[in-house]
Amino acid sequence: MTLAIIGGTGLTQIEQLNITGQRELETPFGAPSAPYVLGELNGQSLIFLARHGNPHRIPPHKINYRANIWGLKQLGATEIIGVAAVGGIGAEMGPARIAIPEQLIDYSYGREHSFFADDLAHVTHIDFTEPYTPSLRRRIVQAAASAGIEVYDGGVYGCTQGPRLETVAEIKRMANDGCDLVGMTGMPEAALARELEIPYANISVVANWAAGIGEGEITMAEIEKNLLTGMSNAIALLQATVLS
Ligand code: HPA
């Protein structure tokens, strides 16, 4: 098994990773966000990719999700954990909280979202009933429990287009739809992994209360402060997961 981790805002690199190499790839879909970092975390080898590039420079709607996932398949990744900063909508989803979502709704648009787009011998419709691979989700949740790291097991992730944050009305609509979390990068990443039959799960780190849920405007200072705590817990969770 080769685990891959895609790190989002606040997780451009993992300091605890013992780096053993780097791979720069071109794919039929263009260039991935950054060179793939090969390394060992707690003695377990894995592949790390900075979703927004390193340094962080690619906004959510400009990420080449297809190249990122295709490259991981080429490198032999057999499971992927996507780590993402999100806004909290549900009452349980306060700042710095970690959630392992179970469902998603895609509100993004105009992104290259499928490998099955052109020149098809036949149209392929993947099953996406459970967008996050249940066995991988369970493994993360169990690793959290054994390591004593508090996580929320479940929730619905809503993926917006960004890069702007949402309006109060948009968040109300998302809450009515059943969303607990709002982020900008969860899709099409999860669906592309499924198209290539790579098990995929998400670790969401809450950076802020979503628009209108908390008081006043959302500031980058608040987001950065919460991500500092949240991402260090997410790294501890990844360390526990690779050992499980
Ligand atoms: N909305 C969307 N994406 C986000 C947010 C948010 O409030 N916070 C961090 N990523």
TrEMBL record:
Query: InterPro entries in the record, alphabetically?
Result: MTAP (IPR010044), Nucleoside_phosphorylase_d (IPR000845), Nucleoside_phosphorylase_sf (IPR035994)
Q: What is its EC number?
A: 2.4.2.44
**CDD domains per UniProt:** MTAP_SsMTAPII_like_MTIP (cd09010)
Catalysed reactions, as listed in the record? S-methyl-5'-thioinosine + phosphate = 5-(methylsulfanyl)-alpha-D-ribose 1-phosphate + hypoxanthine
* UniProt-annotated site: Important for substrate specificity, residues: 166, 220
Q: Does the keyword NAD apply?
A: no
**Residues engaged in binding substrate:** 184, 208-210
User: Tell me, what is an example of a GO biological process annotation in this record?
Assistant: purine ribonucleoside salvage
Q: Spell out the molecular function terms from Gene Ontology.
A: S-methyl-5-thioadenosine phosphorylase activity
Q: Which NCBIfam families match?
A: PRK09136.1
Instruction: Quote the protein name from its UniProt record.
Output: Probable S-methyl-5'-thioinosine phosphorylase
Q: Which organism is it from?
A: Methylomonas koyamae
